[in-house]
Design a protein that fits this description.
By secondary structure, the chain is of the alpha/beta class. It has a single domain, classed as Rossmann fold (3-Layer(aba) Sandwich), CATH 3.40.50.300. The protein is 31% helix and 26% strand. Strands 1, 2, 3, 4, 5, 6, 7, 8 and 9 form a 9-stranded mixed beta sheet that branches. β7, α3 and β8 form a beta-alpha-beta unit. α2 packs across α3. The longest helix has 17 residues. The relative contact order is 0.20. This is Gliding-motility protein MglA. InterPro entries: Gliding_Motility_GTPase, P-loop_NTPase.
């Protein structure tokens, strides 16, 4: 749920990048962080344990306007994708205002992606969120890989809710900002 800071006249929104391990969540955040004016963003922080990490930073987009006179500040998070960190993913999801589901388009990752979207739906139910109305976008990442599944296959099996989806190659920035703009606008529409 968005937090309102009366003192700074800002609404703080949390966007979580969710998906399997090494699908490109961190690469998305790193590209966004590098590309944003340093005066409009916070530092990128990594909350790390021995084998997992959660990345976080916030930024104030200048082109998305205001909501009832309040500027909107977005806090972007990644979740650890490895299977054994489900509790951490659940904790990071708590308080989210929008989700970017990052899919590794490679054929051999298909089953893991299916399991991850099912886990996301289950975790959203656990925290009392209705996926049917929750801001969500899909990102089909790693489109440059020779074994990338066709987009219609990904749409059919992973995007059953028919939410906006974007092809991406996060390693070179392709599709990263289109995805971020879409989820940001979706979150603001909910506000």
């Amino acid at each position: 749920m968005a937090l309102i800071n009366i003192a700074t006249h800002e609404i703080h929104c949390k966007i979580v990048y969710y998906g399997i391990g090494y699908c490109g969540k961190t690469t998305n955040l790193q590209h966004v962080h590098r590309s944003i004016n340093p005066n409009a963003r916070g530092e990128m922080l990594s909350i790390a344990t021995e084998t997992e990490r959660t990345l976080f930073f916030d930024f104030l987009p200048l082109d998305l306007g205001t909501v009832h006179g309040f500027r909107t500040r977005f806090h972007l998070y990644t979740v650890p994708g490895q299977i054994l960190y489900e509790r951490t993913r659940l904790a990071v999801l708590n308080g989210a205002d929008g989700i970017v589901f990052v899919t590794d388009s490679q054929a051999e990752k298909f089953e893991e992606n299916v399991q991850s979207i099912a886990e996301l739906e289950m975790n959203m139910r656990r925290i009392g969120k209705n996926m049917a109305t929750f801001p969500l976008v899909m990102q089909w990442n790693k489109r440059d890989m020779p074994n990338a599944l066709p987009v219609p296959v990904l749409e059919r099996y992973l995007n059953r809710r028919h939410v906006p989806s974007f092809e991406a190659v996060a390693s070179n920035g392709r599709g990263v900002f289109a995805t971020l703009r879409a989820i940001s606008k979706n979150v603001m529409a909910q506000l």
